């Protein structure tokens, strides 16, 4: 699954627009910690400890890592602006890689 699709699906999960089964696979940091942390203020997902390589390649781990790397300014955009900005960001990353 291309990264843009993963990021958009994770946005649906973060904003509780995904099916309940999918939402239940992810934990928001504010539901794990009872005190203020950077991950809470950055609207991140909590990452459980991973022991196997197959877990590192899973959708949950990959999607969480990608989402947590995004700036808060992107995470707070409405759906259409979010999609547009993600595509622009990924295209810029591809251009810089070349």
Tell me what the structure shows.
The structure is a single chain. 59% of the residues lie in helices and 0% in strands. By secondary structure, the protein is mostly helical.
SSE blueprint and pairings:
Elements: H1 3-14, H2 20-23, H3 38-41, H4 53-56, H5 59-69, H6 72-75, H7 79-97
Helix pairs in contact: 1-5, 1-7
Main attributes?
7 helices, mainly alpha, 98 residues, globular
Q: Which ranges are low-confidence, i.e. pLDDT below 50, for 5 or more consecutive residues?
A: none
What class, by secondary structure content?
A: mainly alpha
Mean pLDDT: 85
The helix count comes to 7
Strand content: under 5%
Indicate the percent of residues in helices.
55-70%
Dominant shape: globular
Tally of strands: 0
Distance between the ends: 22 Å
The secondary-structure element order is: HHHHHHH
CA radius of gyration is 14 Å
Report a brief summary of the structure.
The chain is an all-alpha fold.
């Amino acid at each position: 699954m291309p990264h843009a699709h993963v990021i958009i699906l994770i946005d649906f999960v973060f904003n509780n627009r995904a099916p309940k089964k999918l939402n239940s696979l992810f934990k928001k940091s504010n539901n794990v910690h009872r005190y203020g942390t950077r991950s809470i203020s950055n609207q991140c997902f909590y990452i459980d400890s991973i022991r196997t390589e197959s877990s590192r390649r899973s959708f949950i781990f990959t999607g969480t890592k990608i989402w947590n790397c995004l700036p808060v300014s992107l995470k707070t955009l409405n759906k259409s602006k979010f999609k547009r900005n993600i595509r622009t960001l990924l295209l810029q990353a591809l251009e810089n890689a070349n």
